[in-house]
Fold this sequence. Notes:
Radius of gyration: 13 Å
Structural class: mainly beta
Number of helices: 0
Helix content: under 10%
Amino acid sequence: QVQLVESGGGLVQAGGSLRLSCAASGDTFSIHVMGWYRQAPGKQRELVAGITRGGTTNYADSVKGRFTISRDNAKNTVYLQMNYLKFEDTAIYYCSAGPYAVGKYWGQGTPVTVSS
């Protein structure tokens, strides 16, 4: 089994920055794709960013140029650097992972609140 534990969420002012971390443990050998989802109140869950073991990334249009996903394969950890945060970034952020795509394993979620 794989366990994902997020950290780094919190309350920030609009325009500020926050860095989320997600550490994977357990049977991590087969994990090739990791990423971040978010779900805001009253909205559908959406994929924010994903990254393969080889470093290929993709981002939701709403966060391009502001968020950066990175990965430390040796530590089985994925990061999400969030800059120029907006009120609409407020959500619960979930780490996810899988052997070929995200969605098989999930973290517990970490809340991000952006105040204006």
